[in-house]
Amino acid sequence: MMRSYRALGAAAALLTLGLISLSAQAPSDVQRAVDAAYSKFRSLQEGKNADYIPALAKVDPNLFGIAVVTADGKVYTAGDIKTEVSIQSISKVFTMAQVIQEQGLESIEKRIGVDATGARFNSIIAVEGVRTVIGTGAPEMNPLVNPGAISATSMVTGSSSDAVWKKIMDFHNDSAGRQLTVLQDVYKSESDTNQRNQAIGALMLAYGYIKTNWQQAVDLYTRQCSIGVNARDLATMAATLAAGGKNPVTGKQVLDAGKVPGVLAVMATAGLYDDSGKWLYHTGLPAKSGVGGGIIAVSPGKFGIAVVSPPLDDAGNSIRAQRAITDISNALGGNPYAPVK
Ligand code: DON
Asked: What is the pLDDT of residue 15?
């Protein structure tokens, strides 16, 4: 009797950690789910590459790679997991996490907010809207849309632009488990055409979200969006969040475990912009998309998943990535809100 109570206690602890259904999952089941999604969506021809950043229009729209990295560091892949695309808005998660790591969860909540804007990722109306409530202490903004992200980048401390950049890059490298580099053609292309983000940066300074030097914030933000990543890098970054802030492949603790839930909450609220609610309804997964074609999603305690496929829908989210992640996560019992079978 005593032993079965103990076994029940251990199972409950595993359930709390969200680990039970993953450990019940045979490696071949995970690979089968990844392979099935790859062949199901390989020939899907919907959507269109982003073209407001000219370099993104030139990326091969057929590029399709899937990677799952489990919270204990096992890697499952299908398709092209080597070709790099620019990380784009997925970097917003890791720069936000870096600020939270250094300055605490309240820093982001107070300065930027953690609420959905209900607008597109580069909306200026959202910046104007937030001014009406900022005095109430309830900013309707978050670090995953451009105004909030440029402000979050401005919050990374450092004595020079290079010092700030090193911290941003190190955080991305540690999360991916390798030395990443900037795709210079994308950085140049976006720097030449990012007048809208410059306007947003100037407004965020005018309204007190950025304290000084909005030009540096926009430049570093543009550079962080141009970091090159493949599907495996992105899945490892997602798995770092799934494993309580510890990169499960390298074993390095990148983010304090207690700070991870806050990061995931903002991803759940705003990770797929104005389609975040719809996404959460179908998957339950905190996620983040980028206009380079990547999406990461996190099943806490279980796995990180990433898909790279450049054609996007109207909200700016990769179509094949959304479909493949939904199928794979559902096959693996990834939805944290679903009853454990
Ligand atoms: O600032 C921009 O517009 C891009 N560097 C990033 C936008 C983005 O990835 C939105 N994602 N879905």
From this structure: 39
